[in-house]
Automatic annotation (TrEMBL), chain A:
Database matches in InterPro entries: ABC_transp_permease, ABC_UrtB_bac, BCAA_transport_permease
Keyword Transmembrane: yes
Recorded superkingdom: Bacteria
Transmembrane segments: 236-259, 290-310, 322-340, 374-398, 419-438, 458-482, 489-507
Protein name, per record: Urea ABC transporter permease subunit UrtB
Family indicated by similarity: Belongs to the binding-protein-dependent transport system permease family. LivHM subfamily.
Keywords: Amino-acid transport, Cell membrane, Membrane, Signal, Transmembrane, Transmembrane helix, Transport
Membrane-topology annotation of the record: Multi-pass membrane protein
Signal peptide interval: 1-20
Principal location class: membrane
Compartments it resides in: Cell membrane
Cited Pfam families: BPD_transp_2
Designated gene of the protein: urtB
UniProtKB/TrEMBL annotation, chain B:
TM annotation in the entry: 20-37, 49-67, 73-93, 133-156, 163-181, 212-231, 262-280, 300-323, 335-359
Any matching Pfam family: BPD_transp_2
Record InterPro entries: ABC_transp_permease, ABC_transptr_urea_perm_UrtC, LivM-like
The UniProt record lists the keyword rRNA-binding: no
Entry's localization field: Cell membrane
Organism: Neoroseomonas terrae
Keywords: Cell membrane, Membrane, Transmembrane, Transmembrane helix
Name of the protein in question: Urea ABC transporter permease subunit UrtC
Membrane topology: Multi-pass membrane protein
UniProtKB/TrEMBL annotation, chain C:
PROSITE patterns per the UniProt record, alphabetical: ABC_TRANSPORTER_2
Organism placement in taxonomy: Bacteria, Pseudomonadati, Pseudomonadota, Alphaproteobacteria, Acetobacterales
One term of GO molecular function: ATP binding
Protein's name in the database: Urea ABC transporter ATP-binding protein UrtD
The UniProt record lists the keyword ATP-binding: yes
Keywords: ATP-binding, Nucleotide-binding, Transport
CDD domains in alphabetical order: ABC_Mj1267_LivG_branched
InterPro entries: ABC_AA/LPS_Transport (IPR051120), ABC_transporter-like_ATP-bd (IPR003439), ABC_transptr_urea_ATP-bd_UrtD (IPR017781), P-loop_NTPase (IPR027417)
Residue ranges constituting the ABC transporter domain according to the UniProt record: 6-245
A Pfam family the protein falls into: ABC_tran
Top-rank taxon: Bacteria
Amino acid sequence: MTRIIALLLLMAAAALPARAQDAFLDALPGLGGNFTAQAEAVDRLGAAGDPRALPVLRALSDGRLVKLSDGTLLVRDGAAFTNAATGAAATPAEADTQRISINNRVRVALRGALGRLQIISPDAGERLAAAEGIFRSRSADNVGLLETALARETVPRIRDQIALALAVSRLVSADPAAKMAGITALGGSASPEARSLLLESRAANPDLAGQIDAAIADIDRRLAIRRVAETAFQGLSLGSVLLLAALGLAVTFGVMGVINMAHGEFVMLGAYTTVIVQDLLRGHPTLAPWSLPLAIPAAFLVTAAIGAAMERGLVRHLYGRPLETLLMTFGVGMMIQQAVRLVFGAQNREVISPPWMQGTMLLPFDIPVTANRLWILCFSLVVFLLIVAAIRFTRFGLEMRAVTQRRPIAAAMGIRTGRVDALTFAFGSGIAGIAGVALSQIDNVSPNLGTGYIIDSFLVVVFGGVGSLAGTLIAAFGLGVINKMLEPWAGAVLAKVFVLVAVMVFIQRRPRGLFPQKGRAAEA
Amino acid sequence: MSATTLHAPPLSRTRLGLRALMGAAVVILAAFPLLNMLPQDNVLHVSDFLVSVSGKWICYAILALSLDLAWGYAGILSLGHGAFFALGGYAMGMHLMRLIGPRGVYGHPTLPDFMVFLGYQELPWYWLGFQSFPFAMLMVLLVPGVLALVLGWLCFRSRITGVYLSIITQAMTYALMLAFFRNDMGFGGNNGFTDFKELLGMPLNTGAARATLFYASLLTLVGCYLFCLWMTGTKYGRVLTAIRDAENRVRFLGYDTTSHKLFAFVASAMMAGLAGALYVPQVGIINPGEFSPGNSIEAVIWVAVGGRGTLVGAVLGAFSVNGLKTWLTSAAPDLWLFVLGALFVAVTLFLPKGLVGLIQGRGK
Amino acid sequence: MRGRRLYLDGVSVVFDGFRALNNLALVVEPGEMRAVIGPNGAGKTTMMDVITGKTRPTSGVVTFGDLDLTRMDEASIANLGIGRKFQKPTVFDALTVFENLELALKAPRGPVACLRWHLAGAGRTRIEEVAAEIGLTERAHDRAGILSHGQKQWLEIGMMLMQDPDLMLVDEPVAGMTDAETEHTARLLARIAGRHSVVVVEHDLEFVRALGCKVTVLHEGTLLSEGSIDHVQNDPRVVEVYLGR
């Protein structure tokens, strides 16, 4: 890899005109002179645009450039030295080396030069940083350099940044035509910095005030769109978390009418299953990267099995007594939580995200989106669709609907209602487990993981309308977005409190939620 | 007995037995602070620890009574009664904070330490008046009462019952907990209130203060018990039980069940507030953790274990579960939550009438 | 004659597209006894739900005297003097027979009034009378939960008597009763009528014949026929509905 870069560097160096090479070597000795000579040399090196100047100037900036008594300049890198002019390794006598110091004036010159040089650096990150640096330095001298860099640049994101820097440089230039071009270009961006630059330049250019105002309005519009889009994504992301947490409950409570206060603990068990799967597969060459996808069926099976056992062993004895069921399942949840605490410890367990879930990507308008949030959003929708499909199109779903709607008739038609109850409860519990896998990626995996979700989940299910999966979907995303909309002016905690209160009031206005089950069966 | 004249039957033997049990418990508890004054080596000596811990249990018993009135009699399973308890506690805490006066760490004449620390210039308006004991006591009753009135009115009017009501009450206490954790609420945020100095001119960290608070709590417990006993013995109490068992049917008899439930719920919340107010000076601290939904649910299990729908059961449950907790959390701390969880399961599955049910079963 | 006239006109109730009542009209004069019959799903119970405020009609007029019942809740309608006995007897299992009757006794219904309530001589006498009338004097201090099905039916009728309503809605009073009990019930209802208006919903045509009153036949939520029992039994539309087409 390094070799390839070195080769590219060499090729780039070879491609540059000989004049520039001369300029580099011509200007270099100046770095060893007095401050005035240094500053001048730095400027010249910056203007020359030679990639070889980059490490030298950087060394100067960091205090790693040394001068030998014969005037040779060396770059120190730890204990190693290289010749600044040739790049060859050197072994000077320690006593002979003299560190070159700089003053503020040189430092300013260095900042500009480094910024310019980095714009043609082979490293994309450096180019981006350089473009940002030049953008901030707002000097009219950079127009030429930036035009060159823009022409060479291939990465769209860096191109945008260079274009922005170019626009700023043009804005501060003397040429009115360039100024206009700069204003127009800045108006096309969505950068708050560009906005404040335009605002500043407004006083200096009264004749262009109209255009500048128009450009500012343009930016404001884009920023507003970005803010809305950002809030929307954050809201949808929160909504997807709520949806995942609530879906299992939408089955056990919504479809079966059984209140399961241990639901949060099933989510937690799903998260711990993820940890276990990851630990088991650690070191396995082919399976280790797939531990997260593999944890999904594992978590489903584990929590579904516990759910089935709980339904057969405990819950079914309390059918028709919802308050007792509530208390009993709460007790079970408490025991599960304590068991996990004893086995795995009370502290947070680490879950490693696979590479494809790490990092941030940018959507149009520079909306930052973290990969794991995006994955979870998609995942929640997939899980939702699978549940709907399972209930609509499978034999099990049919039997489940039959049993919940008319139990005696379903039994008379030969459906083993007890088995269906257990399977439905297991299904809902398994979904909670799957939710746990996803939540392990964004939440602390600790025995308390589930506690925070149980109230939210219930409110989502009730808000959406008990028995309506579509209602659960809309309620989850709706509450998520509303919560994030409130956050900027109310703060995270108060926003949550507002949402809780709002849902409570809403349920009082419409006790059956957004999408009530209709008909006489619902009258009770 | 003539053919048509109907006389009320005498109280059953188990009922009388339960009341005697309650009386005996009160007498034994009343002796605790006195026995505390005996020399340490006396067999009847009651340790400081036992006095202070049973003082706490008495407050829990009042909370259990209040919950039993709502749940056991009116059928309102509140999973947020801890919020009323905590609000009463906070009202008392505000009074105690005001009484600290210039003795705080920062020595500010009126502002409590945390306000000085957070840069408050003056007392927020809702802190005014709390320097007065009667005002604070009024708030102890009024704040939980008004919250219960508003929440209850909204819920009962819309006929929200059962599990839905339980979840809403739980959400209420959860929301309050989140809100009280915030520093800018003006209630000390995370840390709440502590470092109390005195109450009614009495320094708090003395044996005399402990004994006084103990007796105040015990008297309140007896008062609340008698109040509930009277209330449940009237026709109103029978309307409540009827609402618990078949609310719709009660409506068709012409009773406005909303106002009946509201009355019981508000009275219950006020009792819980009173319990909280007695609790805070005894433990010396109040913080948002008191709002945590887990606390409210624990109170529910006291009532369930003792036997809901009987007043003695609620008191018995509060003492036995908390006694078990105190013993177990020092003997085998890891086990406690298992035992508590198992209690939920066991009581709902095997002992729906609680300990009192066991006693009644033997009596028959 | 005391009491008010019950008047239903153009009443429809729609549940999710299903018309439980369809443009129903019914008039019950003060002091009148009326039997309502009809096959399953004819809308008999829904009609009672509408009168007692449990279900709001989708459209139509329901008045009692000059009062609009569609604007009132169950408790207010009950206090207006409309009592109801449910198809499935609902008594308060945890309370004694005596206490059940006491709750139903006409008296102030507010919480404070209940707290200060003291059962005076007149009220006690009334309870004793009704207990005797429904044959539960011996069991007055037993919890209602341990009564037999028939006794619960009687207790519920007793509770309705305690309310002393102007209009009684009686839903299937003799379901699950023996012949002797059925006969007793018929006599009781006949005695009540005259003092109160009574609407009886029943399947048992023999029982309806024994009541000897005007009969309304409902079918698919609408009025099919009205008149004496002999008239409706000979109405070809009624015959078709009951015997199939």
